[in-house]
Amino acid sequence: MKNFTKYFLVITLVFSVISTSVVAGTSNFSDTKGHWAESSIERMVGKGHISGYPNGSFKPEGQITRAEFTAILTRIVGIDELKNPFSDVDDARWANGIIGGAEKVGIIEKLEYGSKFQPNIPITRLEITKMIARALIIEDEYKEIFDTYASYDQGKLRFKDAKNVFNKDVPYVAFVTDLGILTGYPDKTYKPLNQASRSEAVVMLLKFIDHDINSGSTGGE
């Protein structure tokens, strides 16, 4: 697989307005001390991939939109910007090229969204799982592994709420789970349709980047 860490990118997690200024290079956030994802947030800050807000906060439980997560993931992978194929191009103009590039390589599947991507809607945990899986299977060796999950159904998932995952989505969930990128909650649930928090996005992106599959967690991932 491509060494994703070779892309030296300063990727700012901005979840309300893309032009929001941030405090770069600090891990001394006012609201992450003792948080379950504190160490992951610090590691991502250390790698130069995320920053916080001007007031010194990170807002780990804040939301992340479809466009914002897509922007971070595609920049890590190194996807070129292309024309946005969706009709709601006025909703997040800053992300049009990002969305177009992600759709072109298959990270976004247009058939799943129809004519509108709705970029400003908070992204779900299932959407993040599927985007990460699709970013991985751009590489042939991962595509071969992913294909072995084609026949999987809900019964193959380790989560107590596996019934909430459609069978067509099971291969993505099983694939990312077996790679250690998705671990779920302490109560053994996945909660696929829940809106993902900033901290959950950070943890999954960190595991995607360095495949830290042996690091346990005490929170959402």
UniProtKB/TrEMBL annotation:
Entry annotated with the keyword Signal: yes
Keyword tags: Signal
UniProt entry tagged with the keyword Zinc: no
Signal peptide: 1-24
Sequence ranges assigned to domain SLH in this UniProt record: 24-87, 156-219
A Pfam family recorded for this sequence: SLH
The protein's name in its UniProt record: S-layer homology domain-containing protein
